[in-house]
Specification:
- The structure holds two protein chains of two kinds.
- In chain A, helix 3 (40-61) packs parallel to helix 5 (99-117) and helix 12 crosses helix 13.
- Chain A is mostly helical.
- Chain A has one domain: Orthogonal Bundle (ABC transporter involved in vitamin B12 uptake, BtuC).
- Chain A has 13 helices and no strands.
- The radius of gyration of chain A is 20 Å and the shape is globular.
- By secondary structure, chain B is α/β, with parallel strands linked by helices.
- Chain B has a domain at 89-160.
- Chain B has helices at residues 45-52, 97-102, 106-109, 117-129, 145-157, 175-190, 203-209, 226-235, 237-259, and strands at residues 7-16, 19-29, 34-38, 60-65, 68-69, 79-82, 163-167, 195-199, 212-217, 219-225.
- In chain B, helix 4 (117-129) packs across helix 5 (145-157) and helix 7 runs antiparallel to helix 8.
- Chain B starts with 6 loop residues before the first strand and ends with a helix.
- The model of chain B has no long low-confidence stretch (mean pLDDT 88).
- Classes of the chains: A mainly alpha, B alpha/beta.
- Chain A: Keywords: Membrane, Transmembrane, Transmembrane helix, Transport.
- Chain A: One of its GO terms (cellular component) is ATP-binding cassette (ABC) transporter complex.
- Chain A: The chain crosses the membrane at residues 14-34, 39-58, 70-86, 98-121, 141-159, 180-197, 203-221, 228-247, 253-271.
Chain lengths: 284, 260
Amino acid sequence: MFDVFFEYEFLQNAAITGILIGLIAPLLGVFIVVRRLSLIADALSHITLTGIAASLLLEKKVSGINNWDPVFMGMIFSVIGAVLIERLRKMYKKYEELAIPIILSGGIGLGVILISLADGFNTDLFSYLFGSVAAVSRSNMWTILFITISVIILVLLFYKELFILSFDEEHAKISGVKGRWIHLLFILMVALVIAASMQVVGILLVSALMTLPVAAAFRIAKSFKQTILLSVIFGELSVIVGLFSAYHLSVPPGGTIVMTAIVILISTIVYKKVSTLFWIKEEA
Amino acid sequence: MSEPKIVEVKNVSFRYEKEWAIEHVNFSIDKGQFLGLVGPNGSGKSTLIYLILGLIKPNKGSIRVFDESITHFNKWKEIGYVPQKANSFNTGFPASVLEVVKSGLVSRLGIFRFLKRKHTQKAIEALKIVDMEDFAKSNIGELSGGQQQRVFIARALVSDPSLLILDEPTVGVDTKHVTDLYDLLGRLNKKNGITLLMITHDIGTITEHATHVVSMNKTINFYGTSEDYNQYNAQGSLQWYREQSDQAFVTTHKEVTSDV
């Protein structure tokens, strides 16, 4: 059943990349959700699309640029978007969430202009929007592996700082944590992970992989570490089942991955309800 | 040479936008004192605590904590802070009580150092002090307001601070736990030698426990011992200050005449 994933290189690339993003997207997603920044992933994924559009436009209009990987331009735009969001959050201290729609709409606006200027693209834009099992090249896979290792090292190094900043920012300040730098580092990691996840899950659905497994883990976890562990397990499960079914149903993996995550979320909600009912009955 | 002050606030004024929240505030805390900070709502008590913690910067004046200017302060492990209304945090946060208390060790550890098993042990010991060790694995959001308050006190105590600052820790706590809290603070102050600074509305209770009181309403109305504060309250501020100045006059007069 899974044999085909070992047979073809493009499927190997998709599977390995999928497993990597199934790990790092929910890992960062936990910190995003607890800091009530769930929509930040959406804003950054849209600005990533702008980067891809810019890259494809350059490729079309400027001779000599043929072998550029649009994903890299997407990453650059995502990182710039992340820095701008941090700046705007600082500027609108009492309305920090305003930064997200500003960057999101700005990203889409510029993206639409760039796409129109190029008179549409030869490249299948559909695969960038909803993901594709065939889109990931071997070099993309190595880049994503590098991003995965870097993110894991950074999260381990700054785990206690990320925890304290997420739980109680005031307490973080009086514990001597340099919040500004950690915020910046964190949002840069998010930008890179979004750009990395985009090819498999697609721009429109990448934020789901960062939030849905976390929402499911929230229902049953007792501690923060348990939340992270369960989120990663749910993320991996969504990616593996989603990729496999996408290949066999010939549909974009973004859709199947997200639907698997939704099924997991519903299961945890039902599990929690049922277990609470049983607990009430036992107590009575 | 006299021992340096734990906290020294010199002529500090601070304003939010155009309104002055506190003006020309002067007071200091010596080692081992238990200072109660009282005043009506909006009198600037919490602002003063924020200034002492370096969370906001004064528009005028200077603040020194542990003999260091607060603007360059880095001895954070010496300060434990219990914020106002522990239940103002995100109660849906999926953290266990133990994880919350362990986060109090960040100031002691500094960057690039990991929390280890010995730190878990230390957090459990802090929970024992506030009688919450049985809840170590519970989710922080599932506890009552009073229990959360005790967890936050444990978080403040876990780094073995020399100064403990509490912002209205008795709000939303039942009478029994208020008594327990004062007993605990008394023990920490007398037995462990921890200097305490506590904002409270319980004027009647605070003088039974605190050694000193600061009463403020944007400016400081009273700064002295708890006994003096009781007298100040009983006599009314005008009468009290009149007596104080009369006494000072008599003392000075006696000194002058005896010198002659």
